[in-house]
Design goal:
alpha+beta, 31 helices, binds ligand C2E, 8-stranded mixed beta barrel, 4 domains, about 25% strand, Alpha-Beta Plaits, 5-stranded antiparallel β-sheet, 30 strands, Beta-Lactamase
């Protein structure tokens, strides 16, 4: 068996086939692994896309379905289960629920009112328990007491739609009795349009959305971008009322790049062929040499034809090929090799490497010759070679193979060197893409994990600490939204260049994506970490010049320390993230260490964030109103609307706690819109009820203020409610306006052109520059309650209040003091010419019934204002 194998391996063609098959199989396996890895990455990316679109579709669907809660509220206000002016009311509220095309009221399940009536007349009198296509959901809604969703089904108005049905129960004899339904018909195409699902086409992704039909149990396609079946798609399922929807996405061109795959296979084929060819050459060389030897013995001085052919062949190969005897003396070399030493073959043969290169390099070559001879098999190494002939410098892969005669006597070493400079550069490029952020060239998430794993092992061994700093820019989204992503990207690059020099060699600065950066400081103390956080914050807040803008950005930093705040990467990152969240809540531009208190807090924040998503539709939000009093005559000149959240399990939650959560989770836009609409509607009602003219002030969060469509939204609401604009006042914190003053001026101009009044809340606590204040279209300055609180004991606060009042007068602005609790505070404000006041001294914020009672008895306030 062994003998046969030997005989075969002396045949160059057998060697060619064996080497080709082996090398090709190995290369194909590696290529396949690489391809699988790339496909996995692509799938992970598509999974995130599927999750995002699912969230948007669900968000739009929930918003449309929440119209049924509005109908429920209207029903509760209209006794007898009949809504008067239903068509007009529906016309007003429908624009707030994109996708909803019809609203219906169905006492005992029989539709009695529909809006709009035109085109939907047929629905009147329809018994929802008997309608074949959707009666199942009607029974389900009545039995479960929950909102149900029917469809997709064909709409009588044309197109495909969904029907959301909310059962209403009335309380009789201390028991809940089914009263009927309120329903909303939703055009499904609008839901998908709002979620911008068609953008997937531009990303060359095919998609399909389906559900399992409750009756047939078969897959019902809701939406599909293609008729052909998706290839091994990524699937994401999400809940809708009484069911689930599934979105499947796959790339049009298939996973991974088939073209790249084929190119690699082709390269592997070529490489395997070359390798096999070389192996064949080596065997032929050996055979030739043996033949030569015998010929030399037989015919002295006569050149062999075979040797000449062999020489021609070797010289045609671009790789360097040479043969040395066991002492390192050259026996022959090809033309390519001559280039290396800048000498002809006859000048090289008979000499050693020591005759051509420095001692160190010659030693290196010799060592590898010896390793190959000792190993008795081919040995591979990589080396940098400089060519004497033309100065070329490159990376070479060298294979040294010991050569034996037929008696197993060592004849020498055959060397073959191949230039792999370009291949290595390509490999490095691929590696860079995999491990580094393309924008900032900083280590990415993957590389960061590797480094932290490595650093953790070292600090663990040396019994030291390691700090993880999570850096997140404050309100970075506003920069992207207002100045564009290109400016946002440039800013990230500039800031990262600023931060890098502050770190030591052993530290790591990484970009996680978006505006999130992570710094790893191995072997540091708590004080070192705090010191570094301060330095990073200072470096970030230095003004940055971008294009024509000069921007000031700040950041918040959360710090977690190994081993106290986590023994592994994931726990440490979670802790640093939670600490960073708290730093943001604490006014931003600061840093926080992780504590056990944060641990329990972050769990609460998560629960609140989740519960807040349903607070609006479940009617848990309400507004309280606090009167604002003119100090000259004691009249109520306005009210401030303050939001309240009463959760069935958590109880009353302060806006101080949940507004930042709403801002961070993006829910503030919906909540803020609800506050403005509710406050404006209430004020219009009070006007219609004959209460004296006054304004209603609503708080605007910085996120709302910097949102692109703010002034359009405000106009829509006041037009919708028919409230004269000057009765609506918007309170904006000083810091929100100062974040991006140029954009603030533009937005304020738009709002004031519409006649809406603006006041600066918490005035005195921020950093308003006077030059900007002059440009701000502001009507009123609201003196922060922290100054009013200590008027009686702190002379500095008294001075600040006097200065703000004087500043207001000089700029022609009204001043209002908030948090007035005592008569002394009131007297001081009157003496110094403050225009208005608000606070517990006059009244706490009151619910609608109580504030209406107070508005009917204004003498209570008058007496308090005039008492001596
Ligand atoms: N100690 C003391 N406090 C007084 C007195 N008079 C009024 N207050 C309280 O001071 C806060 C004044 O509102 P703010 O400065 O705008 O501060 C508000 C505002 O920044 C925010 N907020 C409230 N409602 C909304 C809203 O609808 N949207 C937004 N974005 N923020 C809101 O939450 C903050 C806190 O709201 P509240 O808890 O309702 O607290 C209110 C009010 O109840 C007093 O004499 N003494």
């Amino acid at each position: 068996m062994n003998r046969t194998a030997r005989v075969h391996l002396r045949d160059p063609r057998t060697v060619l086939v064996v080497v080709f098959v082996l090398s090709f199989v190995l290369l194909i396996l590696s290529i396949y692994n690489l391809h699988t890895l790339e496909s996995e990455k692509e799938r992970a990316k598509v999974y995130t896309i599927a999750a995002n679109y699912s969230y948007d579709i669900k968000f739009n669907l929930d918003r449309a379905l929440s119209s049924t809660y509005t109908l429920q509220a209207l029903l509760t206000q209209n006794d007898g289960g009949f809504i008067r002016n239903f068509e007009e009311i529906a016309e007003e509220i429908l624009p707030s629920y994109p996708g909803v095309i019809e609203l219906a009221i169905a006492p005992r399940g029989i539709i009695q009112q529909v809006a709009p009536l035109q085109g939907n007349e047929k629905a009147l009198g329809l018994n929802l328990f008997e309608a074949k296509t959707q009666n199942k959901e009607s029974f389900l809604a009545r039995e479960s007491g929950k909102l149900t969703l029917a469809g997709p089904l064909d709409l009588t108005q044309g197109g495909i739609g969904l029907v959301g049905r909310l059962p209403i129960f009335e309380d009789r004899d201390n028991k809940e009795h089914f009263w009927g339904f309120v329903a909303a018909v939703i055009r499904i195409s609008e839901i998908f349009d709002n979620a911008k699902i068609a953008q997937l086409d531009q990303e060359e992704l095919m998609y399909e959305m389906w559900r399992i039909h409750p009756d047939s149990k078969e897959k019902q396609i809701i939406l599909s971008s293609t008729r052909t079946p998706l290839i091994d798609p990524v699937v994401y399922t999400f809940d809708v009322p009484n069911g689930t929807w599934t979105i499947a996405i796959s790339p049009e061109k298939g996973w991974g790049s088939p073209v790249l795959f084929m190119a690699r296979v082709l390269m592997a084929l070529m490489f395997a062929l070359m390798l096999a060819y070389m192996a064949k050459l080596v065997v032929e060389l050996k055979i030739t040499k043996v033949a030569l030897e015998s010929q030399v013995l037989q015919t002295t001085g006569e050149k062999n034809v075979l040797a000449r052919q062999f020489e021609v062949l070797l010289n045609a190969i671009p790789d360097l090929i040479w043969l040395k005897d066991p002492n390192g003396i050259y026996l022959f070399c090809n033309k390519a090799f001559e280039r290396l030493y800048g000498a002809k073959e006859h000048e090289i043969v008979g000499k050693s490497d020591y005759d051509f290169v420095n001692f160190q390099l010659a030693d290196f070559f010799r060592t590898h010759d010896i390793i190959a001879m000792d190993a008795k098999e081919p040995v591979r190494n990589e080396e940098e070679l400089s060519f004497k002939e033309d100065g070329y410098n490159g990376l070479f892969e060298t294979i040294k193979t010991p050569v034996f005669d037929k008696n197993s006597e060592l004849l020498g070493v055959l060397g073959v060197s191949r230039d792999i400079t370009a291949r290595r550069e390509d490999e490095e490029k691929i590696q860079k893409l995999e491990y580094f952020d393309p924008l900032t060239s900083l280590p990415n998430k993957l590389q960061l994990r590797l480094r932290v794993e490595h650093d953790l092992k070292i600090v663990q061994h040396q019994n030291e600490q390691l700090a993880v700093l999570f850096i997140d820019f404050d309100h970075f989204k506003n920069i992207n939204d207002t100045l564009g992503h290109a400016i946002g990207d440039e800013l990230l690059v500039k800031v990262s260049k600023r931060l890098k020099p502050l770190l030591r060699q052993v530290d790591t600065l990484s970009r996680q994506g978006g505006d999130e950066f992570v710094v790893i400081l191995p072997g540091v103390s708590v004080d070192d970490a705090a010191h570094m956080a301060k330095r990073l914050l200072q470096a970030i807040e230095q003004p940055i010049k971008l294009d024509t803008n000069e921007l000031i950005v700040t950041a918040s930093i959360g710090i977690a320390l190994y081993p106290n705040d986590g023994a592994d990467i994931d726990t440490l990152f979670k802790s640093a993230d939670a600490a960073m969240y708290l730093a943001k809540q604490n006014g931003r531009n600061n840093y926080r260490f992780f504590t056990s208190e944060i641990q329990s807090r972050s769990a609460r924040i998560l629960s609140l964030e989740n519960a807040l998503r349903y607070a609006h539709t479940r009617g848990e939000l309400s507004l309280h109103y606090q009167p604002q009093i003119s100090l000259s005559d004691g009249k109520i000149v306005g009210v401030e609307a303050l939001i309240r959240w009463n959760h069935p399990d958590f109880g009353m939650i302060s806006p101080v706690e949940f507004i930042p959560i709403a801002e961070e989770s993006g829910q503030i836009l919906l909540i803020g819109e609800w506050v403005m609409r509710t406050a404006a509607t209430r004020m219009k009602q009070w006007m219609d009820m004959g209460f004296p003219a006054m304004s209603v002030a609503v708080n605007l969060s910085a996120v709302q203020f910097h949102h692109a469509h703010l002034s359009k939204l405000v106009s829509t609401i006041i037009d919708e409610v028919k409230l004269p604009p000057w009765f609506l006042e918007i309170e904006l914190t000083e810091s929100a306006a100062a974040q991006n003053p140029l954009h603030a001026i533009e937005t304020m101009n738009e709002l004031s052109e519409k006649g809406i009044r603006l006041s600066i809340d918490d005035f005195g606590t921020g950093y308003s520059s006077l030059s900007y204040l002059k440009c701000f279209k502001v009507y009123k300055l609201k003196i922060d309650q922290s100054f009013i609180r200590d008027i009686g004991i702190d002379p500095e606060d008294r001075e600040i209040v006097k200065i703000i009042i004087a500043l207001g007068k000089s700029l022609g602005l009204k001043t209002i003091a908030e948090g007035v609790e005592t008569k002394e505070q009131l007297d001081f404000l009157k003496e110094n010419g403050c225009d208005e006041a608000q606070g517990y001294y006059f009244s706490e914020p009151l619910n609608v019934t109580d504030i209406e009672a107070l508005l009917r008895a204004p003498e209570i306030i008058l007496r308090k204002n005039n008492s001596n």
